[in-house]
Design goal:
globular; alpha/beta; 249 residues; binds 1,3-dihydroxyacetonephosphate; TIM Barrel
């Protein structure tokens, strides 16, 4: 049995401003009080260095990186650049990027390989769309994504998997505890089959409309090792209760 620390990571998406960095103070205070919980915030690229300067002990991360180290990729940012800016982690394969930027599993895998090699904790996202859940093919879909987007592991940095059902993102609808237990169990089995004992140490986060009211029930589920939080990570008022729920779980 592996004891996995809970990780609560905020994904600010394309939100936030210098003024919003004031939220980091109370978030960091809550993180210090929440023994046994890791807390991270991923603001837009432009705020990373500024956020690092005000992080007060929480990890600051990015929402994407390119698979290449440098080169003619206008508008992209490399893993090395993120490290230089002070980022400790990066999200790859978020469903919004898979949809908006047409990122394939192979592209996501390339990003994860590079990010891990650069020493960034890497949160790799998977999740089904509503039609797949209705059709009952949700587990199959997520297993396919894992099969094709998870990198091999060399132990350079920590890989984290985030299960984010697309129909639950920004909709106010969450997976039920039973949905989460089913899918996180399927993901755990895949990780164990693929990586052996290491697969038991990989944290699996749930993401999709996590908030103060539903966090505790989700954190109580087997194999739910934390949360990737969008909307409710934008203010300390909304985010801190989620961190506190993780500490109590
Ligand atoms: P919401 O918490 O706003 O649903 O977003 C979830 C998400 O996409 C986190 O990456």
């Amino acid at each position: 049995m592996h004891v996995r620390r809970k990780l609560v990571a905020g994904n600010w998406k394309m939100n936030g401003s210098r003024a919003a960095l004031a939220e980091l103070g109370p978030i960091a205070a809550a993180a210090r009080a929440a023994a046994g919980v890791d807390v991270a915030v991923c603001p837009p690229f432009t705020l990373i260095s500024l956020a690092v300067a005000r992080a007060g002990g929480i990890a600051i991360g990015a929402q994407d990186c390119h698979a290449a180290a440098s080169g003619p990729h206008t508008g992209n940012v490399s893993a090395g650049m993120l490290v230089e800016a002070g980022a400790k982690l990066v999200i790859v394969g978020h469903s919004e990027r898979r949809a908006d930027q047409c990122e394939s599993d192979a592209v996501v895998r390339g990003k994860a390989v590079t990010a891990l090699a650069a020493g960034l904790q890497t949160i790799l996202c998977v999740g089904e769309v509503e039609e797949e859940r209705v059709a009952g093919t949700h587990c199959e879909k997520v297993l396919y994504q894992l099969e094709h987007s998870l990198p091999e592991l060399g132990g350079e940095a920590e890989l984290v998997v985030a299960y984010e059902p697309v129909w639950a993102i920004g909709t106010g609808r969450t997976a039920t505890p039973d949905d989460a237990i089913e899918m996180h169990g399927v993901i755990r089995e895949h990780l164990l089959a693929r990586f052996g004992d290491t697969g038991g140490r990989i944290r699996i986060l749930y993401g999709g409309s996590v908030n103060a009211s539903n966090a505790a029930a989700l954190f109580a589920c087997d194999n739910v090792d934390g949360a990737l939080v969008g909307g409710a990570s934008l203010t300390a008022e909304a985010f801190v209760p989620i961190v506190e729920a993780a500490a109590k779980s």
